[in-house]
Structure formats: structure tokens, C-alpha cells
């Protein structure tokens, strides 16, 4: 099957309580592709400036990512600057330089117009809509967004959400988008905006999938050292969508397995800056932590009352 992603390809400057890195590789579509390419072939749509290293484009290709939709244009690459306090669940944006993204209008190569699965990674919702318009309706359309767009481009976001099957957001974004404090109520309110499934990412507390009348919760893999949470959400989504694309599409069972794969991949990416840890993560590593998580969450029924 084929998995298409559109999103940011970026430089990130990140400060955490454990260190600081200037202009490391990042961006929502970049993290997503690094993660999903462990599981399936990914088609990537995005834009980079003259300053973006060709080596990394080559490296993505080696991982099986089709970069025919990654356009290089004059100017500087998108740059995000962020900071985390000891509560690593919350990113504080210090600066967003859209740069080449400000004038980008995606035009999909012919071979990218029939994906089975489409992931509209965090980026301007108008660009997400432009991509959606250019594809034959995929089996599944998923979307991620953030506070920057929820407040800055709310109407455009609400419009594209009508055609989305699965929304990925963190709890703060779910609250901001819905106006509901409780995440279960927030999920129900968001489902009325279009998506039939809402996946709420809760950082070190795992992720919650809400559908009509049912919920599924996957805890985060318990780690001793979390170094840099940047990209955890996109890596999680890459694992979920990659698993669905590899193992047969969305249904109640595969979606649950895919959530665990996503959580496991996110547990690797946070162990180092940028996606350095994903470079050395193998499918066997993922399978090992997947099996561990099953053990960590396995419990028997209570004895009957009598
Ligand atoms: P997350 O997975 O939520 O930690 O996403 C982190 C990535 O999102 C970083 O690599 C940033 O480059 C990227 N990012 C930050 N702000 C934006 C934005 N406004 N639009 C698109 N991508 C962004």
C-alpha cells in the first residue's frame, strides 16, 4: 500500500533541561517519514530552502522515502525554536520562521495522487486542504495540527477537518480546539467537527483513542531517560500510519496494534535530540518494546464475587 505525508521539513533549535541544540533536522513530515519508513514506503510532500542538506534527502531516500514531492526553492528552510521545562509534555514555542513555507503551494507528482493512506502532518491547514484536493479519496485521511494553527487559521482548519477520518492532537490542543476541558468531552466535540476517530497524545502518559462509544488507551513505554520530546507526536503518528499501511488498513483491531507501534516508536525518538535515535532503531527493537508493553499491561479478570 502507499502512505503519503505532507508537512514541515525544518531546522529546529531546541532547549531542554538536559541540553541545547541549534538548527538540528526536524519538522513534522520529517519525523513522520523517519518513523513510518521503518514499516512501509512513504511519499513525502514538502518544501525546503537552499540551506537544507542534500545528504539528508539522500538518507531519506535510502530509507525508502520517495522524495519526488519534496521541492527545493530559493530562500531559507522553515525554522522552529522551542524550549521545554522539566515538564517535558509541553513545548514552548519561542519562534516560528515560516520562510519557504510562506509561499509554498504543493503540486503533487502524478504518482502521488492515489495514496491508500494520507497523513496531513502539522502545517498550515490551507496547505493540508490543497493536498487533499489533489488526491483520489484515500482509504484513510489523518491530520495533525497545533496551537499555532488552531488560533491562527481556525476557519481553514475547521474546513479541512470535515474531510478527515482521524485527528491526532495532544490534550492542550484538544481543549483549545473544542473549548472543553475534559479530554473525553473534547474528543466527542471534535468528532462532531468531522473526524470519526480522535487520538489524543498525552506525552509521558500515553495516548487515548476515542471513537463512537468506545475508547482505547495505550500507556507510554516507561523510560528512565527522556532527553528531547521534540517530534514525539509526529513519530507516534508515523508509527500508527506506517503500521496501518503495512498491516492492512484501519479497523478496531489493527488501530489498537498501530497505536502501540506508534507509542513504541515515540519512546525511541525521545531518547536523543532530533531523530538521531531513530537512525539506529530497527524493526526488531520495535517488536521487543511492543512485546514488553503487552507484558506491562496484561492483567487477569477479578475472581467472581462469591
Ligand atoms: P511534535 O511532534 O509535536 O513535537 O512536533 C515537532 C515538530 O513540529 C518540530 O520538528 C517542528 O519543526 C515542527 N513545527 C513546529 N511548529 C510548527 C508549525 N507551526 N507548523 C509546522 N510544523 C511545526
Structural notes for this entry:
The chain has 306 residues and is an alpha/beta fold. The protein has a single domain, classed as 3-Layer(aba) Sandwich (UDP-N-acetylmuramoyl-L-alanine:D-glutamate ligase), CATH 3.40.1190.20. The protein has eleven helices and 13 strands. The strands form two sheets. The protein has a nine-stranded mixed β-sheet with strand order 5-4-1-8-9-10-11-12-13, with helices on both faces. Strands 3-2-6-7 form a four-stranded mixed β-sheet. Helix 3 links the parallel strand 8 and strand 9. Helix 6 packs across helix 7 and helix 9 packs across helix 11. The longest helix is centred in the last third of the chain and has 18 residues. The radius of gyration is 18 Å and the shape is globular. The termini are far apart. The model has no long low-confidence stretch (mean pLDDT 96). The protein binds adenosine monophosphate. The site of adenosine monophosphate (AMP) has 18 residues, from strand 2, helix 1 and helix 8. The site of adenosine monophosphate has 18 residues, from strand 2, helix 1 and helix 8.
Quick tags:
36% helix, 4-stranded mixed β-sheet, 9-stranded mixed β-sheet, alpha/beta, binds adenosine monophosphate, 11 helices, UDP-N-acetylmuramoyl-L-alanine:D-glutamate ligase, 306 residues
Strand arrangement, largest sheet?
5-4-1-8-9-10-11-12-13
Query: Unreliable segments (pLDDT under 50, ≥5 consecutive)?
Result: none
Helix content: 25-40%
**What value does the Rg take, in angstroms?**
18 Å
Overall form: globular
Helical region count?
11
CATH superfamily: Ribokinase
Order of helices and strands: EEEHEHEEEEHEHHEHHEEEHHHH
Q: Name the beta content range.
A: 25-35%
Q: What's the rounded overall pLDDT mean?
A: 96
CATH architecture: 3-Layer(aba) Sandwich
Class by SSE composition: alpha/beta
Q: Distance between termini?
A: 52 Å
Number of individual domains:
1
* CATH topology name: UDP-N-acetylmuramoyl-L-alanine:D-glutamate ligase
Bound molecules: adenosine monophosphate
